[in-house]
Write a structure and sequence with these properties.
about 170 residues; alpha+beta; 8 helices; about 15% strand; 5 strands; two-stranded antiparallel sheet; CBS-domain; 3-stranded mixed β-sheet
Length: about 170
């Protein structure tokens, strides 16, 4: 086998990885979720203490109705998803930023509806959705739209590295 054949084989393997892995095998199953009636300060504390960037928002039946992220909370001070760290620094120095969200409860600022995915989907589909929508996580739901997991970019990266290493 020539070096070129080896490169083609490796490239083919890498291009198939996402198709071969299923969301259910890669997702995080121990998922915290909250209701839309939680205070934003409580959510900010949870995100900080648990070192996570977002939480699914569920109704009383544990069905997904939205998601709240660090970006949603930062939007309260005028920092939108499109703003850079440099923009945040400018804001802290007194410059105004647009798109300020207001409210005290999760339901006031959450992103709704949440983008979700089924556990039987392949990881390539999840990556496509995340890339297309410029998001960092997908809530994994069952056929009743109940939270069963969350899939983050970090979950995908860990799985891909594990698969490549064999």
């Amino acid at each position: 086998m020539s070096a070129e054949d080896s490169d083609n084989t490796t490239g083919h393997l890498r291009s198939r990885i996402g198709l071969e892995m299923l969301v259910r095998d890669v997702m995080t199953t121990n998922v915290l979720s909250i209701t839309k009636y939680e205070s934003i300060m409580n959510v900010a504390n949870i995100l900080t203490e648990k070192n996570i960037s977002g939480l699914p928002v569920v109704d009383k039946e544990n069905k997904v109705i939205g998601i709240i992220t660090q970006a949603d909370i930062l939007s309260m001070v005028g920092v939108s998803r499109e703003h850079t760290f440099k923009d945040l620094l400018k804001y802290m120095l007194g410059e105004r930023l647009p798109e300020r969200r207001v409210g005290d409860l999760v339901g006031d600022i959450m992103t709704s509806p949440a983008l979700t995915i089924k556990p039987a989907a392949n990881v390539a589909e999840a990556v496509r959705i995340m890339d297309e929508k410029k998001i960092r996580r997908l809530t994994v739901v069952d056929e009743k739209n109940m939270v069963i997991g969350i899939l983050t970019r970090a979950d995908i990266l860990k799985a891909v590295i594990k698969k490549i290493k064999g």
